[in-house]
Write a structure and sequence with these properties.
Blueprint (H helix, E strand, L loop, with lengths): L1 E6 L24 E8 L2 H4 L6 H11 L19 E8 L2 E5 L4 E4 L4 E5 L3 E4 L6 E9 L7
Antiparallel strand pairs: 1-2, 2-8, 3-6, 3-8, 4-5, 4-7
């Protein structure tokens, strides 16, 4: 995953490129980010040489903050406090909260609002997605 662009909260109309201010790849309230992420085929993670512990460490280094939202007992499943727009290059399956799989194809668009989900790649080719994430403003009061 690469953060291609980020806008801090309260920034002027002109966004800032990738900067060292990023503490997390999950934008906070009023922040926005553009991520480009490539998902290898599921077969890569089912290979006998796959090392889940090394993958978690690598993911934590490359995508700080995201690991805080990943479910330990359901790899890849997460829910972030963001509104996400995703555009796909390739094919991938979006697994929703109820376990339903939605097969996404080239140029499909997905909009999520703090949705619990996972992305699965059962096809033999990698899939690349562009995500625009907007940090939600936390509701006050009840």
């Amino acid at each position: 995953m690469t953060v291609a662009w980020a806008t801090p909260a309260g920034a002027p109309a002109s966004p800032h490129g990738p900067t060292p201010f990023l503490q997390s790849v999950v934008p906070g309230p009023g922040e926005s980010m553009l991520h480009i992420a490539t998902f290898p085929p599921d077969a890569v993670m089912q290979s006998p040489s796959f090392n889940p512990a090394a993958t978690v460490q690598e993911h934590a280094a490359q995508a700080p903050g995201l690991v805080n939202y990943l479910e330990q007992d359901n790899p890849g499943t997460h829910k972030t406090p963001t509104v996400d727009y995703a555009i796909l290059s390739g094919e991938i399956c979006l697994e929703l909260d109820d376990g339903k799989l939605i097969h996404l194809r080239q140029h499909d668009l997905v909009v999520q609002n703090a949705t619990r989900h996972a992305l699965r790649n059962p096809v033999p080719q990698s899939a690349t997605l562009a995500f625009v994430l907007f940090g939600q403003v936390k509701a006050e009061g009840c």
